[in-house]
């Protein structure tokens, strides 16, 4: 008998970041901000705070509300702070990987936290190693720290753009020094980063839902390529990075972000609602009710129902106490993994032809279990509708994707997938439909995991490495 | 700075029970059953298992998934088990109150767990004390154990109906002895109790959602006044209690039970959906969208939207990581308590006239915060609709109600409440509407907390006691 | 690979008790008192405090310093308190057995904690069960609570002597009611109980070392057969129990008590020192050095060395970090269990003829390992001297003894034991020598576990029961 | 009311190290080795293990037996491992400082743990920072890692001597790479490092008591200036470091090491015993009994008693359950801090003239409390004897010393100290006496903290820095 780890058959955002400058309760508000961003990373969390002279760090494995208590927050004194929630990508699951990283170098103490990914970091890492660098983690973020430390710039603030100028990849990064909070976003703007105001203090977060919890006001996004320095002289913005065509991660709108967030200046809920509407147009279904796979499928399902005129019903209930590990019974229970999280409302499904709305299909195993569960609950037909196109490629920009060979759409046609998940019909939203629903022109959007066309160079090595890194740990 | 305890501005079910007989993984399946019933009690949980000779017990404060690990489950060997999740009513929050209770007496070892309340227990307790009984808890369940122990019946199985025959009140109870699992339900059937089958094993639970998780089949309800004895000779049913008019707790359908459960033989989701429809008829609103207070308002909101033709929108997001305690910031954040749980989707609410659907209003303070939050998010009008009548009296049948003076509807008219919660309009579902939506005739329903007409005698003392018990602990 | 539980090859005191009346920090001082009494019981601990109106309880498995934190102590408000540390005897290891017990009955709330044992409790328990009593634990202490509750005496204070008047056995008991602290000791005075003063407050403890830690003054012992009632009118003493010949447990002086305690009015250290001197006279050894098995053997070893003129050396080091469980290596390490606790000082032992002083031999397995370890460290001869006679019988008065068949001295002659433990010679202190060293006349001492002559009736049943209870749990 | 942290009025060894190569249970034996070395560091502990390909790390704050469980040890697969226990020096108490450090560089993965101190590390650190290095801890050990990483040597094994050749200071270091275990000791040999054998495996530890627990045989010391490389080809020794006059830390024999260890090839117990004898000659006392401050004073007190002919008595009892933190009562208890650890045996001290033997006096506050406690217990005279000379200077070689101004002997004469601690007389062992007792010639011994003459250069800056670092953290 062993513990049951909830199946992850989803792409996973790797991180969420939060920063604040100029508030006497900096660490405590960072704690709240991270709590609101918890869905972006559940493996580890950490906060570094500055009292103007010294940076102090607290990191641990686990959820924000479990890790931080009064004692720990009290150790983080000072009026500025940054924090991070994180998933592991692959390999090591360890406190050594938990951010923010805090180091000392010739420019003094620097803490950093990062949402994104630097596809060329491995190469640069080897180059730095050849020059004598030591690495305490496997993270590409550490590469940036080394380059900062090696910079002959007058200060960290000058060094940051110097170092990141030629760095390919996705980075929404926060730096904290004893005297300043610095935010920088890569020129393509893959991952979100929003700026807000709380009284006289400035706040920065991956998603605006973190502002809502602390009553801060969303001001605007940190722009792609922008660097913002906040210190006692106020906020100073610059655009030190080379201009590039924008590449906003559309998957944020499809799945990662909370529906109550504004991402890339656009309401996530609105995007999802419109995806649902488009899906109804592109893939209508001769059915009785529209049922979301909660919670991510809710907004699109409402849109689908609104557009199609079919009745919207909450036919699957999401358990409120879904946790991380679970003791499984020895005897086999059908679809046990899915059942711990979702349960069908039988009277709603019985005898009905159901349109089931979910955001995406990764491996297909979960979808198959859900379809079966819905059918066993009495549905006569199950029509699956997905609010984005088939996911065929890995992401190199800060999202944990399974091996290409595990992406069902990379191996199978839509009909084969339909057959595999045992649905009566299956419809994916088109690329155009998705983009239009989100309100982004293809020029400013990253859609690489659906098209295989990546906005940055991807070295052969990066790809190989990717495959290797995602092999099961022996 | 202190820890923030999520505000409870809700009536609270006091308990959930689960039992199983004849399965090698009895304790483990009880653990799963309790996990599915967690919403019925989050303060403590416990399991007692029998190996045919000896009963063993594990109880602790906390959530099922936190309390039980492999080691603890392994100590609970045997093929039968009962389990319990519990809220505290008042006074002591202590392991001493956690059920199942396990005692030894002349009839051998007996374990018991109870969902319900015995309004005359205090009187009987004093009588028993006069006869020399000692009480290890403040629970009325312990009174039943004492009476069993004093019975001269040949065995526990004979003693149970003897003892409960004249007991007024609500009891859906499970007993475990080394050789048998016994379930009994009071003659009015206030609280639910369902019987299911898992292969050759029998299972019993407060709600059928517990069966779903373990792939058991719902067979039927344990009937009001019925006693079921399960042992190695199979299941034996009898009706040893005096016949009474049924009094099913309608609040189970309004709020307590999970929507995916069948309660009193009727789908909870269906009841709620119809309540929403009736509400739309009784209290239409000139508005743009219908928004539930999630999750309990969802089914009724869908019904309201369906009936009214207004658009259903998911305008409030429920945080996935809502826990028990939370470190609050020192500075005041408006509606902090509500925000930790709910966040508005601004783009949906902005500029819209909103119908907000919730199940009930207890103190009114939470409703006021939600209305404010929705308005601050940009709603131009907020019309609150409640899927039951005004709650005006305490429950004496196993539900934790605040003092009568704290029930806003016991002190104020609907118009005054509307003013207090700052809504533009407020409509409560009528008693008839509610009953009709649930499909129960008034003869078989308890609606005492809405009407003040209690199905059992309520001694003056019980009422006074009630008030006293619910005074703030000094 | 499994966890290693430190071998218990010792008799074990089953409990320690502490009480205080009239101090604003009652619970906190009880915590300190229990900390000083920790050696008397390491499995569970608990405190009940009274604020004059209400008794509150905190109990848990584990060590005093691990179980109690600020939060827990703060819940125990009030100026009087009692506390308990406990070992399990046999069977169940469970929070259900942890004392103090707190119950309510016709006399109001009563808490009790007990050091001792009531050999006839099982009989009385069955009688009570026949009259309808329920038992929440397997403890004989609960029998006393039932009898109190059944008493028609005017109050708990009158009921206590009434109930205990005819109770055979060992009991040093503390009772707490909202308004009073009551201490009572059985007429033979098997187990110790001391009275002390801390400013205006009264304190009571199993050993005087508990007074030392809190700066209280030892006043006198609670006498055998004495009952002391402390309330707002002060301390009132009475002798309500029938007079009996005293039977002080001599094993307290041999092993259980801390050497810095005064037990039965006599310094434990002094007794042990004199035991060592007598041992040197009764069993001299032709050797080079005298080495104690620390810490219990230290005082006797110093006495032995002083008397014999041999050099005293600290040839075995006791690890400071001895804990409860330990992860053992898979490969066998010789005498691993003993080594985790003790390590030889090789340069002291090498080439020397060693007299090894320990307090007692129970099963003999530990002694054998120690002798081997000393020999492997280079000792040329090992002469074992034990500061009491061979232990041949179980204790029925509050000490956990292994089954008679596991007591090596019940099965083997001294020469056979010597052979078994591989010593060059073995000498036990004589009964007279031991008593004389302690300064007690045989009339006032219990020496039953060495002689088999028990001061109380021991029913056949009690003996049989004893054997059964100590069979390995299946 | 706050928690009470046991007063530290002692110099503190900063670390203990353990390594093993060639055993299938490498991590588990390292765990046991660290358990035996726990007294050398109680703040944090860690193990890094190698499976021949990959190094894995587990570190945490806390005691070895609390930190490691089956799950954690199982993650550390492989046949070689190194481990570390650690105190903090000053400043940050953080997981960031816990060793072993594990990094990756151009030479692959390297783990290191270090007992000692590098007085010039701060300078080198700044130099490295100027060259672009980043530091994740405040430890001087990290400087060595950077220099290794920068070395153009062919491998780590070549790089180690290259880097350490010119490093002034104290280092008994273990390195682990996927394929080798490397041990190196500075040319003066300040800190101990012993080599042992366990079947075919090699083991290395700070003290030989770690070998005893796992049944390994002490082979010899790693010599000052020696480097030992152990891999699949066996053990290879070399002496790559410049020759220097030896400087064995005599304080290891006075206090730090366990008495059952062999340190610098000499039994610690023997040294202490002889120190006691010398002390009796140098500072006789007209007294009745000799009493150690346990446990560190025991061996010297036995020696003192043996030499002087005075009676040895165990007049102070050390509590078995001394832990790290403790909840203090609000009311003042005299000498509370000392009492939690030590309690007087009154009957031994009463009316006696006592010679009290301790190893050293640091601040003097603890000695004062002990003298008072002994006197309150009834001693008529208290003569303090210390088994080393007055400690007048800080240690720069791996021992945590308070600020010079806090060392009582740096400010006061012996007579003034006697007066401060309220002793009737006070005698310190002479330098010659101490050295002779240990059997070391002054040429091979470090005695700097007693004489102020340091075996290495000590830059002005180092001294200043030292003072600064030990200022109270603001
Ligand atoms: N584990 C669960 N899974 C799904 N729904 C649940 C669960 N527990 C409770 N519910 C439903 O959710 C409602 C309560 O949740 P919610 O409305 O979010 O919180 P609140 O109790 O504060 O109103 C109940 O009506 C119940 O039907
Ligand atoms: N804390 C949260 N509160 C509300 N919604 C959330 C939260 N975290 C994540 N979400 C939303 O829920 C979705 C993920 O939840 P869900 O669909 O229930 O699980 P899964 O990740 O298994 O699909 C995301 O799309 C996100 O928008
Ligand atoms: N685990 C151990 N087992 C036995 N002796 C130890 C252990 N750890 C430390 N010691 C010895 O005990 C001495 C320190 O303990 P002690 O004197 O009781 O405390 P303090 O450090 O406060 O002086 C050290 O000299 C050391 O030799
Ligand atoms: N907290 C304590 N402080 C000092 N001495 C103690 C303490 N607890 C127990 N003792 C003494 O130590 C003895 C038991 O310890 P020891 O001999 O080391 O272990 P064991 O119980 O295995 O024989 C007892 O005789 C008791 O007198
Ligand atoms: S590849 Fe996909 S997941 Fe990654 S950034 Fe682009 S759109 Fe987002
Ligand atoms: S009074 Fe209300 S809550 Fe109580 S049983 Fe009746 S309907 Fe249910
Ligand atoms: S039988 Fe032995 S242990 Fe028990 S009370 Fe008598 S002397 Fe003490
Ligand atoms: S200065 Fe003192 S403590 Fe430091 S190494 Fe030298 S003798 Fe040891
Ligand atoms: Mg989802
Ligand atoms: Mg709700
Ligand atoms: Mg002992
Ligand atoms: Mg000491």
From TrEMBL, chains A, B, C, D:
Catalytic activity, as annotated: 5-phospho-beta-D-ribosylamine + L-glutamate + diphosphate = 5-phospho-alpha-D-ribose 1-diphosphate + L-glutamine + H2O
Record-given protein name: Amidophosphoribosyltransferase
Function according to Swiss-Prot or TrEMBL: Catalyzes the formation of phosphoribosylamine from phosphoribosylpyrophosphate (PRPP) and glutamine.
Protein family per UniProt: In the C-terminal section; belongs to the purine/pyrimidine phosphoribosyltransferase family.
Keywords: 4Fe-4S, Glutamine amidotransferase, Glycosyltransferase, Iron, Iron-sulfur, Magnesium, Metal-binding, Purine biosynthesis, Transferase
Organism this protein belongs to: Pyrinomonas methylaliphatogenes
Entry's cofactor comment: Binds 1 [4Fe-4S] cluster per subunit.
Required cofactor names: [4Fe-4S] cluster; Mg(2+)
Record: active site: 15
Domain Glutamine amidotransferase type-2: 15-233
């Amino acid at each position: 008998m062993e513990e049951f780890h909830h199946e992850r058959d989803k792409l996973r955002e790797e991180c969420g970041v939060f920063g604040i400058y100029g508030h006497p309760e900096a660490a405590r508000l960072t704690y709240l901000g991270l709590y609101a961003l918890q869905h972006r990373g559940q493996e580890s969390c950490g906060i570094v705070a500055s009292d103007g002279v010294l940076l102090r760090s607290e990191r641990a494995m686990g959820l924000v509300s479990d890790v931080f208590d009064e004692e720990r927050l009290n150790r983080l004194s000072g009026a500025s702070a940054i924090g991070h929630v994180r998933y592991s990508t692959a390999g090591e699951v360890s406190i050594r990987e938990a951010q923010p990283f805090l180091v000392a170098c010739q420019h003094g103490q620097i803490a950093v936290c990062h949402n994104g990914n630097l596809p060329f970091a491995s190469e640069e890492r080897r180059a730095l190693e050849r020059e004598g660098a030591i690495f305490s983690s496997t993270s590409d973020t550490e590469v940036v720290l080394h380059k900062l430390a090696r910079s002959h710039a007058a200060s960290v603030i000058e060094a940051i753009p110097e170092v990141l100028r030629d760095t390919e990849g996705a980075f929404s990064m926060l730096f904290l020094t004893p005297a300043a909070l610095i935010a920088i976003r890569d020129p393509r703007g893959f991952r979100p980063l929003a700026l807000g105001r709380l009284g006289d203090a400035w706040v920065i977060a991956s998603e605006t839902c973190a502002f809502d919890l602390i009553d801060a006001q969303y001001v605007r996004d940190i722009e792609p390529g922008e660097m913002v320095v906040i210190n006692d002289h106020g906020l100073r913005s610059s655009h030190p990075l080379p201009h590039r065509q924008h590449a906003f991660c559309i998957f944020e709108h499809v799945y990662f972000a909370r529906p109550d967030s504004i991402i890339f200046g656009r309401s996530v809920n609105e995007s999802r609602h419109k995806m649902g509407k488009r899906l109804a147009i592109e893939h209508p279904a001769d059915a009785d009710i529209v049922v979301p796979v909660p919670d991510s499928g809710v907004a699109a399902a409402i849109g689908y129902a609104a557009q199609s005129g079919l009745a919207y019903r909450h036919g699957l209930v999401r358990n409120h106490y879904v946790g991380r590990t679970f003791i499984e019974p020895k005897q086999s229970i059908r679809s046990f993994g899915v059942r711990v999280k979702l349960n069908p409302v039988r009277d709603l499904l019985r005898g009905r032809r159901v349109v089931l709305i979910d955001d995406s299909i990764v491996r297909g195993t979960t979808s198959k279990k859900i379809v079966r569960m819905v059918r066993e609950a009495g549905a006569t037909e199950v029509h699956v509708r997905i609010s984005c196109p088939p996911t065929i490629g890995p992401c190199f920009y800060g999202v944990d994707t399974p091996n290409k060979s595990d992406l069902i759409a990379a191996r199978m046609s839509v009909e084969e997938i339909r057959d595999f998940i045992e649905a009566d019909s299956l419809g994916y939203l088109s690329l155009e439909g998705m983009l239009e629903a989100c309100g982004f022109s293809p020029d400013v959007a990253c859609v690489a995991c659906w098209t295989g066309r990546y906005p940055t160079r991807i070295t052969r090595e990066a790809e190989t490495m990717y495959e290797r890194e995602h092999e099961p740990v022996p």
